[in-house]
Design a protein that fits this description.
By secondary structure, the chain is mainly alpha-helical. Helices cover 66% and strands 0% of the residues. Helix 1 crosses helix 2, helix 3 packs across helix 6 and helix 6 packs antiparallel against helix 7. The longest helix has 35 residues. The two termini are 26 Å apart.
């Protein structure tokens, strides 16, 4: 009986992880497009309010690079949505015929923010433990306690849930 429970939990966990990975891949593809397409990058910069910034791509060998990429995409969410809306307009369809990327849904942005909430303690930890001008060994146990405390909080996703409460029609799998 216990083995059945563990098997069903790990299966659900695998499906959940695969789904989150797919959502991140959709956003990574957009970041790649804005980094590689000159025409797309120019239009994207025009749609940004304030000083335009570019997307950040993650790098496999850099620990926090995925977190940085996702943070930047979240910051650029209004401009990304404006760009995607423009691409669906008659003029945009002509100008960006080559644009064949998936459009992130509200659910994807929700998952992105929840993922960033979860990754934040790890980002802080890797930054602290990567120091070169101070002793990092003494920080190890306090940092591990910080991670355990933050990740184990029951209300870790409350702020994200409140922000998206009305905008998402999600099944019970996405209620955090």
């Amino acid at each position: 009986m216990e083995d059945d429970f563990e098997a069903s939990f790990s299966c659900d966990e695998d499906v959940l992880l695969e789904t989150v990975a797919e959502k991140v891949e959709v956003l990574r593809d957009l970041a790649k497009y804005f980094c590689k397409s000159m025409k797309g990058a120019e239009k994207f910069k025009l749609l940004q309010s304030g000083k335009p910034v570019g997307c950040i791509l993650d790098v496999v060998v850099r620990w926090n690079s995925s977190c940085y990429m996702l943070e930047r995409l979240l910051l650029l969410q209004p401009a990304i949505q404006s760009f995607l809306a423009y691409c669906k307009s008659p003029g945009g369809k002509i100008e960006f015929q080559d644009f064949k990327k998936k459009t992130p849904k509200t659910e994807d942005w929700y998952i992105l923010e929840a993922l960033l909430t979860l990754l934040k303690p790890f980002k802080v930890a890797t930054t602290l433990l990567s120091g070169e001008k101070y002793c990092t060994l003494a920080l190890l146990f306090p940092v591990l306690r910080l991670i355990k405390k933050n990740v184990g909080m029951m209300n870790i996703f409350d702020e994200v849930e409140q922000k998206y409460a009305e905008g998402i029609d999600m099944d019970e799998n996405w209620v955090l």
